[in-house]
Amino acid sequence: MDDQFVIRVATAADTVWAQTICDEMEASAKSRGTGIAKRSPEYIKLKMLEGKAVVALSKDGEWAGFCYIETWGHGEYVANSGLIVSPHFRKGGLAKRIKQEVFALSRRKYPNSKIFGLTTGLAVMKINSDLGYRPVTYSELTDDEEFWKGCRSCVNFEILTLKERKNCLCTAMLYDPAQDRERKIQNLLSDTEESSSDL
Predict the structure, then answer these.
(1) Which residues contact residue 94 at a Cβ distance below 8 angstroms, ignoring those fewer than 6 apart?
(2) What are the tens digits of pLDDT across the range 109-155?
(3) Where are the beta strands (DSSP E) in the chain?
(4) Residue 168, class by beta-carbon neighbours within 10 Å (0-12 exposed, 13-18 middle, 19+ buried)?
(5) Which DSSP state fits 4?
(6) pTM to 2 decimals?
(7) Cross-strand pairs, 78
(8) Distance CA 87, CA 89 (A)
(9) CA–CA separation, 89 vs 58, rounded Å?
(10) SS3 of 109, please?
(11) Are the beta carbons of 174 and 134 closer than 8 angstroms?
(12) What is the rounded (10 degree) CA torsion for 189, 191, 194, 199?
């Protein structure tokens, strides 16, 4: 896999793929029978130009995958959104590698922000879990109205509205850097105590 793809922060040269990315996002959601917040090619291009997107290309220069970053609540929250892999390159672990790269980009750009996502996909839930996300209630996500407006184009928006935005068909997942630091400190202390007791 390592020699098949180039996975990197998107640049202005990658804006040529914006329409393809949008078309594939919509087609993928339809084939799964799930909802999706629609994105425009202009929006995808903007994320690329802002340095807030990751693109995967095959060694032949063919578009293979994409994901982008959005910030909410004045930077308190970050979402890694729009993860999509070209049908030609699915089932080979590329989605996981793209997600790892966009997660790392988010941590570099916004080291103190909570990173969250909404998904209906079991594969994405597994990837998120491996990165340190945990399932949470919707109340733990951003209350930024602009984020929730993105759900209006989803086929399940009526469900979200009826449930007063407390839950929907998507699973909410959150990575909290403060909790992650605390967990690492606790693990370090536990390891130190075990080492001391072995002496």
Answers:
(1) 1, 5, 56, 64, 65, 85
(2) 999 999 998 888 888 899 999 999 999 999 999 988 888 887 887 77
(3) 5-9, 53-58, 63-72, 77-85, 114-119, 134-136, 171-175
(4) buried
(5) T
(6) 0.82
(7) 71, 115
(8) 5
(9) 9
(10) helix
(11) yes
(12) -100
> What DSSP character marks residue 115?
E
CB 77 within 8 A of CB 39: no
> What is each CA distance from 196 to 183, 185, 192, in whole angstroms?
20, 16, 6
The arrangement of strands across the sheet holding 114-119 comes to 5-9, 53-58, 63-72, 77-85, 114-119, 171-175, 134-136
pLDDT in tens, 35-53: 566 789 999 999 999 999 9
Per the structure block, which two tokens stand in for 125? 């839930």
Q: What are phi and psi of 2, to 5 degrees?
A: -60, -30
Residues with Cβ within 8 Å of 32's Cβ and at least 6 positions away in sequence, in order, are 120, 121
The strand pair at 114-119 and 63-72 is best described as: unpaired
What are the C-alpha distances in Å from 67 to residues 55, 84, 197? 7, 7, 46
Q: Compute and round to an integer the Cα radius of gyration of the chain.
A: 18
